[in-house]
Amino acid sequence: MFRFLYRTSSDETADAIPSLNIGRVICLCMASIAFVIVLYSVALVLLTWPIDEISISKSGTFGDSFGVLNALFTGLGFAGLLITIFLQREDLRLTRSELSETRKEIKFQSVTFQQQQFEDSFYRVLALYKDNLSKLSIRKDGLSEGAVQGVDALSYLIYKFEGAWSKCNLSDFPESEDEKDEYIYTLYKVCRSIFVRQSRYVETLNALLVMIDEDCFSLERRECYWRILASQLTVYEVKYLFYQAFLMPDYKSLRVALLSSLTFRDRFFMSGISEGHRKSFENLWGVKMPRSAENYSTPLSADRFKLAHKRISKRIAIQRSLMRKTSEEVRQ
Questions:
Q1: Predicted local confidence at residue 158, as pLDDT
Q2: For residues 255 and 239, what is the distance between their CA atoms, to the nearest angstrom?
Q3: Where are the transmembrane segments (predicted)?
Q4: Taking the mean position of all CA atoms in its chain, how far away is CA 241?
Q5: CA 252, CA 249: separation in Å to the nearest integer?
Q6: What angle do CA 222, 225, 227 make, to 5 degrees?
Q7: What whole-number distance in Å separates Cα of residue 146 and Cα of residue 127?
Q8: Mean pLDDT of successive 10-residue segments in the chain (332 residues)?
Q9: 293 close to 191: Cβ distance less than 8 angstroms
Q10: Which of 257, 263, 258 is CA-nearest to residue 289?
Q11: Helices (H), the chain
Q12: Backbone region of residue 142 per phi and psi (left: phi > 0; alpha: psi in -120 to 50; beta: other values)
């Protein structure tokens, strides 16, 4: 019966406050009043039956007998008060629901605004970084005029560094602590002599990395922006920035990105930086970098790759053996 007094809707959730159907409540009250009056009248007639005399005085006495219904109407007045309370409860329910929806909308708008604000700043700084890269200029040794710019300038520095490092005759990273220090010291001196710091270019990237790490509106979305930035870096930029992070103690932002972002670590691994230099970086700054490509997807399974490698190696060995025999026969 009580369910009859409330609205039913398939859209309402289980914890929603039921909504009172005022029309049904009023109809039920009016029907109850009419039913009680009719029932009381029938009861009086049955109790006084048979009626011996019908007169005005007797009718007045019969009418006075309805005075007992005053208490009933008082109760119905109280019921009206309860209905008013239910109506106020309904208004409060609607108000709470509207406030909840408003809070959700404000929260969503706030997140959207933060995202738009961050992305506008991110892409502006990224464009500034690309502009500073294009304006980067390095004068080649032995040339009185002319200079290389942009990525070509970084490529020239990397080529110059690799030539200087090859003269040091150091290949594998040593095992003993003293030899490690000597290796790192030599690498530091060579890097210091070649990689002149391009402050405007480096600091722009530094600002971009700090923005992603500290100002990103969502921690889960940081990797997305690191991935975007990493996709914009050429192999020469990656190498140059790696050696800058190796040289400069204040270039913490890139080391944080290498620690926090799998994308950045993979990007630096794929850049062709030598194993000894990566180990020197790890030993000096405590930032581990991947040493193998085991985590990278391949078109064939690992076992099939190994078998293919063995077959190719065997075929090459046979070809070399045949060529050796042929050359020996020619000499004879």
A1: 92
A2: 14
A3: 25-47, 67-87
A4: 26
A5: 7
A6: 110
A7: 26
A8: 58 56 70 74 68 54 58 69 78 84 85 87 93 89 72 91 90 88 93 88 90 84 90 92 89 83 81 87 81 55 74 83 76 66
A9: no
A10: 258
A11: 22-48, 56-64, 69-135, 151-166, 177-194, 199-210, 222-231, 235-247, 252-260, 262-269, 275-285, 302-331
A12: left
Residue 110's region, left for phi above 0, alpha for psi from -120 to 50, else beta, is: alpha
CB 232 within 8 A of CB 151: no
Q: Which amino acid is at 215?
A: D
Helix axes 262-269, 222-231, angle to 10 degrees: 20
C-alpha to C-alpha distance for 181 and 194, rounded to whole angstroms: 20
Estimate to the nearest angstrom the gap between the alpha carbon of 112 and the chain centroid: 13
Strands 148-149 and 137-138: antiparallel
124: amino acid identity, one letter: R
The one-letter code for the residue type at 322 is L
SS (H, E, C) 212-278: HHHHCCCHHHHHHHHHHHHHCCCHHHHHHHHHHHHHCCCCHHHHHHHHHCHHHHHHHHCCCCCHHHH
Enter the tokens of residue 77.
């007045």
Residue 290: the pLDDT is 64
pTM above 0.70, yes or no: no
Which positions ≥6 away from 300 have C-beta within 8 Å? 308
Cα within 13 Å of Cα(59), Cβ side: 3
pLDDT computed for residue 251 by the predictor: 83
Q: Cα-flanking dihedrals φ and ψ of residue 9, to 5°?
A: -145, 135
The pLDDT value recorded for residue 35 is: 78
Rg (CA), the chain: 44
The partner residues of 149 in beta bridges, in order of sequence, read 137
Crossing angle (nearest 10°) for helices 235-247 and 275-285: 40
